[in-house]
Amino acid sequence: MSIEQYIQTVGQQARAASRAMARADSNAKNTALRAIAAAIRREASVLVAANREDLAAAVTAGLEPALLDRLTLSEKGVATMAEGVEQVAALDDPIGEVSDLKYRPSGIQVGRMRVPLGVVGIIYEARPNVTADAAALCLKSGNAAILRGGSEAIRSNRAIAALVHEGLTSAGLPPAAVQVIDTTDRAAVGHLITMREYVDVIVPRGGKGLVSRLLAESRIPMIQHLDGNCHVYIDDHADPEKALQIIENAKTQRYGTCNTAESLLLARSVAGDLLPLIAAMLTDRGVELRGCPETLAIVSTAWPATEEDYAREYLAPIISVKLVAGLDEAIEHINVYGSHHTDAIVSENYTAAMRFLREVDSASVMVNASTRFADGFEYGLGAEIGISTDKIHARGPVGLEGLSCQKWIVLGNGEVRA
Question: What is the domain extent for residue 100?
Answer without folding.
Answer: 3-223+398-411
